[in-house]
Amino acid sequence: MKTECFAQISSYLESQKEEMVKTLEQIVNLESFSREPVAIEQTAKAIKTLFEAEGLECKLLPAPPNGPTLIGILGAKRKGMPILFSGHMDTVIKPGTYPKPVFRTEGGKAFGPGVLDMKGGIVIALYTIKALNSIGYCERPIKIAFSGDEEICHKDSRGNELLIEAARGACCALNMETGLPDNSLCYGRKGRVETHITVHGRGSHAGNDFLHGINAISEMAEKIIRIQKLTDLEKETTVTCSVIHGGTVSNAVPAECSMDVECRFVKTEEMQRFQKGLQEICDTSYIGDTTTETVFSSVIPPYECNEDAMRLWRFIKKTAEGYGLAEVKGKTLGGGSDAAYIQTVGVPVVCSMGIQGEWNHTTKEYALLDSLVPRCQLSAAIILELAHFEKEEAV
What we know:
This protein has 395 residues and is α+β, with helices and mostly antiparallel strands. The protein folds into 2 domains: 3-189 and 303-394, Aminopeptidase, CATH 3.40.630; 191-300, Alpha-Beta Plaits. 36% of the residues lie in helices and 25% in strands. The chain has 11 helices and 18 strands. The protein has helices at residues 3-15, 17-29, 37-52, 115-134, 159-167, 216-228, 268-283, 307-322, 339-343, 372-384, 386-394; strands spanning 57-63, 66-74, 83-88, 104-106, 109-111, 142-147, 172-175, 184-189, 191-200, 204-205, 238-246, 252-253, 256-265, 291-300, 329-333, 349-350, 357-358, 366-368. The strands form 5 sheets. A 6-stranded mixed sheet has the order 1-2-6-3-7-16, sandwiched between helices. A 4-stranded antiparallel sheet has the order 4-5-18-17, covered by helices on one side. Strands 11-13-9-14 form a 4-stranded antiparallel sheet. It starts with a helix and ends with a helix.
């Protein structure tokens, strides 16, 4: 253990508490709703400036039609495999939801859009790098990759591809998503498929021409029964028929019906089973001459709880114990994250390394300010000890 280096890092971080909060305030007040790429770009430029001040070589990579991705590296010529801080800059809360200024603090908590999910995580990555710079750390490169469209699943963009490319060749990655109140890190998340289905029947007058109509809602009802049976609770696969629209007036046989379906799963093969099964159901007409359009509008692979993820988590847990930090727990979660994409290139990754708090994606979202320093300490300790992680991998 590099106890002297860690003591210096901890002292530096304690001295930076107020500055951390000010930085968090700065970037939370820059609202960056996922559907407003111009606002995200402005936020990304401000964050880019903060990291460039610490010596990172940064660039904004466009990901149209959505917000850009911020990529950066410190010490590109250093020996050793880099470590990656990953995450996102966009938020789910529409501008105007909060009164200005949107950031506020009360009772040791910070409130505002994205304060927890996940601008607090970006601040932790920044101040971890600041702390390492304060002791002259130069053992390996440190990279950042912050997406501008994670909350909308990189829809129609190359945002996920940019993250994958940034992750290639890394020793491991720390995904700075929402930190959990019980100090758990996440080593597995469900994947998600969102599907939009449209059934076309034939409209007719419900009284004068009933027999010539083909009821699109009736066809959709047949499909719903079969689609919901794709749920497999033993394999933790859930299928939800969630939003449905059909018909126009009560005295007409409806010619069209549409529905959104969501599936969540822990294994890639379950994603494939669902997609195949759903397509077969949609390709079958159950009540007559109907046609169905199926669009898999959003697909997020699972962040699988595999041996790489568990090995990194065990290393982090042991490192925290060695440096006298709070016990690191672990769990799997139902919500997706970009850790899934990082994992696709064989890079070990843990998630939920960000600031701790609750209620993300709601106006009750808050972050615990007292978790800023401990989470920076944990990230710094991980980086200090990475050589041991690499030796474990070699064995």
